[in-house]
Amino acid sequence: MNPRQSGQFRTAFILLTAAIGVVAAIFGPLTTLRAHVQSAQTASVGAPSFEVASIKLCRDRENSHLSILPNRLTVRNQPVQFLLKIAYGRDFGQFGFRMLSDKEIAGGPDWVHGSISGYDGYDVDAKVEDSVAAKFAKLRCGSFFNGPCEYRGQMLLMLQSLLAERFKVKVRRETKQLPVYALVIAKGGPKFLHTSFNTEDDPAHRADPKLPRPARPPCPTDMRCWHNYGSMGLVADILSGFAVIGRPVLDRTGLEGGYYLDLQYALESSLSATAPTDNAPPAGPVGPSLFTALERQLGLKLKPTKGPVESIVIEHIERPTEN
Fold first, then answer.
1. Span 55-101, pLDDT tens digits
2. What is the C-alpha separation between 122 and 249, in angstroms, rounded?
3. Where are the domains of the chain?
4. HSE (CB half, 13 Å, CA atoms) of 27?
5. Half-sphere exposure (Cβ direction) of 112: Cα atoms closer than 13 Å
6. Which side of the chain, N or C, has fewer Cβ within a 10 Å radius?
7. Contact 122, 318 (CB under 8 A)
8. Is 127:50 a contact under the CB 8 Å cutoff?
């Protein structure tokens, strides 16, 4: 396999395993905090927006729900933090969308996180203007933006505009140099099927687009299994959310395109909580650790280092006027 090198990456585990940019490069040693003060795309002139929206406070913690269709966005009983995690989530193009994690939203009063007066959730019903909705309906889009979604970017900008207009949201993107894992190619090279069809790629490692995707293999008892299709950027983002890893993961493989991945590793509860250093840890009692499985089964390695980690910082937010 002769993968093309690239420094920038861009399946979601369903809605809440379902993501606009992770980060672009690892910059050497820790130096100073870099703050990208970007006025969070708040209601700039000409920004896409919903035609009309209804917002109501809801505190019963029941019937939480999210629906995103070409003609409307409907949220039931979710804190504002949930809306922010979607609005500023990461778009991986044909490979899907990932919400931000709780750790990637900083600042704001307690009610933003649903943690005051028992619970502060909101019902939101936002309608897309008819002519725009008709255009969206003709475009491809999986359930909750999974996989390719040709109107995802527009819908996210609409949600950002709604937050700015009704909640008076102002945020900035802030980047710190923090401990991370760099996802790199292990010795011996990658061990998975490449599905990019560029002529520069080795034909022996390309998947025929007319063939069905590989079948999901059975998952052994007491193991976790990951049968996935996506980019290396998406893989790194998903790995960032694994508790056993414990720190953000940045794609440094240089691999572009999509890949079929099958991974089997031991349940976290059966493994030591000690994170590895430069060497992969030994196998756990009922199977390989996630770190070991990545290297043995996929030819990928997590290398401890420091790199840029971005978060959204809430500079201003207000409770909306209900209607």
1. 998 877 677 888 889 999 999 999 999 999 999 999 888 888 899 99
2. 32
3. 34-174, 178-309
4. 13
5. 20
6. C
7. no
8. yes
